[in-house]
Amino acid sequence: MSKISHRFLREGRALPPELEEARLQIQSLARDKYKLDFFETVFEVCTYEEINMLAAYGGFPTRYPHWRFGMDYIEMQKSYEYGLSKIYEMVINTDPAYAYLMDCNLVVDQKLVMAHVFGHVDFFKNNLWFAHTNRKMLDQMANHATRVRDLMDRHGASEVERFIDVCLSLDNLIDPYADHIVRRRPPSQEEVDGAERDRGVVARIPTSSYMDRHVNPKEWLDQQKQAREDALTRMRSFPEEPVRDVLGFLLEHAPLERWQVAILSIIRDEAMYFAPQGQTKIMNEGWATYWHTTMMTADILTDAEVIDYADHHSGTVAMRPGQLNPYKMGVELYRDIERRWNRGQFGKEWLDCDDPRARAAWDTGAMLGREKIFEVRRTHNDVTFLDTFLTEDFCREQGFFTTTRDPRTGQWVVDSAEFKKVKQGMLQMLASRGTPRVFIVDANADNRSELRLVHEHEGLDIQLDWAAEVLGNLAAVWGRAVHLDTWVEGRPTRLSHDGARMTQKARAE
Amino acid sequence: MLPIDRDLQRFRDIVKGRVRKELRRYMSSGELVGRKGNDTVSIPIHSIGTPRLRHGDNKKGVGQGDGDGDGPGEGQQAGDAEGQHVLETELTIEELAEILGEELQLPRIQPKGQKDARTSNPRYTGISVNGPESLRHFKRTWRRALRRTMAGGEYVPERPIVVPIKDDRRYRSSRIKEEPRSAAVVLYMMDVSGSMGKEQKEIVRAEAFWIDTWIRHNYDDVETRFIVHDATAREVDRDTFFRTRESGGTLISSAYKLAMSIIDEHYPVDSWNIYPFHFSDGDNWSQSDTKLCIELVRDRMLPIVNQFSYGQVDSQYGSGQFLKDLTEAFPRDPRVVCSRVANREAIMGSIKELLAGGR
Amino acid sequence: MSAVGDALDAALDREEAGAVEVVAGPHRVRVDVVVPGAVGVRVREVRVDGPPGDVTERAYAIADGARGLGERIVPVEVAPSLGGAVLRTHPDAMDGPEFFDLAVGPGHTTVTRQRRRDDGGREAVPFDLTRRDLRRLVERLAAPTER
Fold first, then answer.
1. pLDDT (tens digit, 9 = 90+) per residue, A385-407?
2. Looking at the 3D structure of chain C, how many domains does it have?
3. ipTM
4. A461 and B74: CB-CB below 8 Å?
5. Which residues constitute the domain of residue B94?
6. Distance (Å) from the alpha carbon of A216 to chain B's nearest alpha carbon
7. Preferred mutation among B8, B12, B45, B55 to probe A, highest tally of A CBs within 10 A
8. pLDDT per residue as tens digits for the range C43-67
9. What is the pTM of this model?
């Protein structure tokens, strides 16, 4: 066991002997028997207040000073009091990973939690969407906190806090797929002038291949001329390509003071760090649950404890008929995938087979289930996970919809149209919880240095009251008016904000 | 002290700032009425929290969740709330009263005269060596005697006789423990005759809420009594007070008489700061009854109350003569405070008027 | 009772502004006319006196019978111990700041129209009735409990 590098909450928090023993046992089980692949994981036992604090802080012991954490803390406390959510554990995506256990939990529950935690850490380590997250975020968060406090000392706590408020309202306007910072500077005047000159002169590029001589020179030269025209147009439009990373763009090009640049980078950094978590909630929870249920029943519990366990947790994975709870669905999907790949229920033949009896009896003895779910947890996010694996058979087995009797065959069948509706509904719900896709398309709109953005509408409108505040903040940062082209109730609309108020106008498509 | 305490405090300050800024709205809407606990008030705060671009149904004004990159990492997540714009948070009654006092510029109340000490139960807490036999502190006397006897080798456990001698005697001293506790009684009187409709009663309810908040802030102990009247008056509990509806005529004197009899029986003026508050739509049955009311106020109430307060609420029928008659009868007496409440929006101004005297 | 109605009609036909008073049997009617007319009149007050009866009974009967005024009239305060009742237009039936106010005593009823002022007070305003509605009103007020 390697040395613990951080004791950040307080001293004397090592696991008591029986928990330490459990930890070693479960860790070895997870790693050696089940081949989970996780960072070294440090467990700490915390009081209820500490866990609430950590939850409000996103799992980190320190964050920059801001009222939002106070608000989140109160909200969590309240929902705990109402029994709406019981934080059994908290684990963060770092290397080494840190996990916090509630001091009041029974040992059998702590064992479950540890198994669950190893599932999470394996997910963090292996899911591709997390590949570029900063595993040293523990230090980074502390650095951010120090930096913000410094800036508050220097520039005033209220002023810095207000600017943080503004940045937070924009912090979902990032490109979660960007895995490195792209510097995007506007073309210099020389480059534009150079391109202008080139327009008139079409160089004859020496061709090296024999065939080139026989290419119609005029056609080829016309193509080159067009290519240069396009390049020139692109250079004149800035940004050249639509930019999803709005925060990044602002960092580069908005008229910010140095301390504001520092704050905005911190906010962006943290948003990038958390972004994959939002996109993989179902998969991650499902994965961790899959492993704790597997390990608990197969290896960890004594027979007596199994009864206790069943009692405690019969609620956690069951779904009420007719209720679709995405988080509970994850584990059921993994089990379904495992079962199908064990029985060879995949591939073209399987998809083509529509005899229900043959499908029910299908078993090629492939035994690829475990391998498959490991692969799935690596490559998918929630949307692709549901899209790929939420099948009609799965829905029927889970009792997601009712059956009716087919008058022709006398059989009970599921309404396929209803399945499509169910799946569509689930994907729609995921999409709606997601951030609207917004891109900067013009940083010199109407030649007045105004900012124009486009919302890629996928069937869901943007909520206007909050949009007004956000666009106001964007205008404040950009220093000029901003415009967002979107669709509202089916009509192409431009939302504009001049810093004072938002206006809503129809636009040509 | 956890690091988050700083953020909690900052958030509470922001909440207080919001309540301060929106005090008028809270007072007009009446949304805090009924949210008082023992020491705290639950405050609904609208649209606090960070706005972000997100999907939403603009017709219904409901958001579709909090989008990405929003806070807490793994573990069960609270706060996956769908489109919630209202946060409930708690302030102590003290904090709410401070905000009220600051925003309305209410002077702190100076309790009248000698009322700071409740002298009805003197507590003997000192021990002295001299005193009347009735105050002899028997335990201490006995203990001293026992010690003396044992020290002298005279104590025989089989025959434990201890005879206190004069030097042993200890007496309770009447050093009265001064616990200055200020006390106030508020007598709410409301006209519940037919012309006082639901809206009017809601206004009275709201006014009572704020008056309560302020008085409790200024006194250690506060009692409240509730009187409803039409042509006759009776005492009721708080809930009944706001729910009663009669259909008889209005005889305001019935309420004032009942209030006086309650005061005479239970609230001696040298121990209590007394606050009668009467609310009505001003349509007394007759001028002669109004004359009687004025006599009751002048001759019976004013000599003993801190302040006599009258709030006249407008109904759909306008409001009546009583306010005019009362202000004419007491044009310059600072102990008589009147206020007209035309509608909900006027509540804030009315509270300020009623409490501006600092009495 | 058409005796009192006829007497009133005759008096109003004289087409004079000012108080018009008629007596018919046990009933007396007084109408304060502002603008006389053959088809309609503008009045400030209508008062009907008659034999005394139970205040509560009268209050409810008159509320019912005052329909000719064109607005739903309801008892607002019924105070037999004080010797009277107050009836007014139901708040839901009010269209603006004006309403009818009927003061009912053991033997008399006084009808006026009031307007709620912006400062909260009230003032009496004249109101218009067709001659026919006025006659019917007076007849009902004269014998409210008879049907």
1. 999 999 988 887 877 665 666 77
2. 1
3. 0.85
4. no
5. 1-45+86-105
6. 53
7. B55
8. 999 999 999 999 999 999 999 888 8
9. 0.75
